[in-house]
Design goal:
By secondary structure, the chain is of the alpha/beta class. It has nine helices and five strands. It has a single domain, classed as Rossmann fold (3-Layer(aba) Sandwich), CATH 3.40.50.300. It is 58% helix and 13% strand. Strands 2-3-1-4-5 form a five-stranded parallel beta sheet, sandwiched between helices. The mean pLDDT is 95. Bound molecules: BIS(adenosine)-5'-pentaphosphate (AP5).
């Protein structure tokens, strides 16, 4: 199975859930910028306080902050990794390309988890994270369409994109992903 992966998809698509399973199974490092930012918020650091305001509105945190979080973790690891929630726009994708070229670790596959908006919203409302309320979810979906969805074309054009249907049980989706990554 491929060992340097990127998961793409709208909020609530199941990226984090599936990334955890694949990383446990394949012994990959799971780099979720959302989780790393939430840790920063929990720590009460000044960066965390800055990020919290932005996250609670469903907007994107600055590219520089996110890159600094990812960079040190990618550079010290070579057994394989899965990026979840990063890159989030074309500028972050360009920064990531530069970084991966520098450390000679190209992406092997980009996996897009596709699913209807209605199911996403139901899942997120059920989860009830701080940014999982109707208003913030709508903004997160808008930001996804405006800023993140252009990455689909970008990775398709360079031949890295695979899509899977995110509807169904966690186990069913996981089987589809494993098949797509083999
Ligand atoms: P982030 O944490 O990345 O949130 P997100 O992209 O909105 O994704 P979610 O965590 O909501 O969804 P997911 O696809 O991981 O689904 P999950 O597996 O959790 O980002 C949060 C914020 O941080 C952003 O808004 C932004 O402010 C900031 N940020 C993060 N990265 C950034 C970046 N690179 N640049 C700038 N800012 C950044 O599943 C969702 C729910 O559904 C769970 O409860 C799960 O149990 C359930 N579920 C999963 N699969 C299934 C299934 N098959 N059936 C039923 N339920 C399921």
């Amino acid at each position: 199975m491929k060992k340097r992966l990127l998961f793409l998809g709208p909020p609530g698509a199941g990226k984090g859930t599936q990334a955890n399973l694949i990383c446990q199974d394949q012994d990959l490092v799971h780099l979720s910028t959302g989780d790393l930012l939430r840790e920063e918020v929990e720590s009460g650091s000044s960066l965390g306080r800055e990020a919290e305001i932005v996250m609670n509105q469903g907007e994107l945190v600055s590219d520089e902050l996110v890159l600094s979080i990812v960079e040190k973790r990618l550079s010290i690891n070579s057994q394989g990794w899965l990026l979840d929630g990063f890159p989030r726009n074309l500028a972050q994708a360009a920064l990531l390309d530069d970084l991966l070229q520098k450390i000679s670790q190209p992406i092997e596959s980009v996996l897009l988890i596709e699913i209807d908006d209605q199911i996403l919203v139901e899942r997120m409302l059920l989860r009830g994270r701080k940014d999982d309320n109707q208003e913030v979810i709508s903004n997160r979906l808008k930001i996804y369409r405006d800023k993140t969805a252009p990455l689909i074309k970008h990775y398709k054009n360079i031949g890295l994109l695979n899509s899977v249907d995110g509807f169904g049980s966690v186990e069913d989706v996981n089987s589809r992903i494993k098949e797509a990554l083999n």
